User: Fold this.
Amino acid sequence: MKILLVPNYSRKEAILGARELESWFGNRGVEIQWAHDKSLFPGKLIDTSGCDLVVSLGGDGTLLRAAKIVGYSEIPIVGISYGHLGFLTAAGPEDLIKTVADALAGELHVSHRATLEIIADFERADGTCYSMTGFALNDLAISRGGQGDMVEFDISVSGRHIDCLRGDGFIISTATGSTGYALAAGGPIVTPEFTGMVCVPIAPHTIMARAFLTSPSDVVEISMSPERPAKRHFFADGQPMGEEGDGRGFEGKHVSVRRGPGDILLLDRSAQSFYDSVSRVFYGKTGGK
Assistant:
């Protein structure tokens, strides 16, 4: 049995919790592996071969990092909340050992969360172009650059042109990400069982543009308008894509987004955990009526 620990290294309590797990399970024949501190080793890769479980110790941002480490491999993830929100986590530090032990025993509910596969094209300062692929559990966001100019772009779904928009950007989200940036931009809260994509314009310069949902097999494409060469950036789960280069930023030209080839297996207490979190986070309820 092997567990990968992904703590938030900026939170002392999360590191202490990881050490507690290492001590407790180390005496029970469970191999413990630590993810490195990405602020110290930003480009270092993590080998997840042989891992039976990934434990995220932090907030939702730490769990997103754990999801990126796992990628499409479908290694189960359980989150322990040491953060502010904890929307995606299964328990708090007071239930640390029991929750992870239950996860290893197969006693937790498995929530299959759809992912995104991203193919993005960029242009360097010298005019040369390059492509890169990306992973996201929450969303792909297109945003205007630091100069504040609005961006203009065309939206297509599975080869069908939808619209040409001007605004601050656009979000392509999973159901999991529907409660994040997409919700803040005016999108709907969507059950995790939905496996299509949630598409939400950010501050569009029209009253006609609205959020819409796609089918699981659709491909959403965004092409930046060459007639309006404003700075624009692509972000996968809040992390910038592309090369920073000479400081112009991450000049995205085109992006294609589809459902990823594998899901994130998120462990929680029950099939109702999502609605409990919605009630707690967005309606301020702590249980009961």
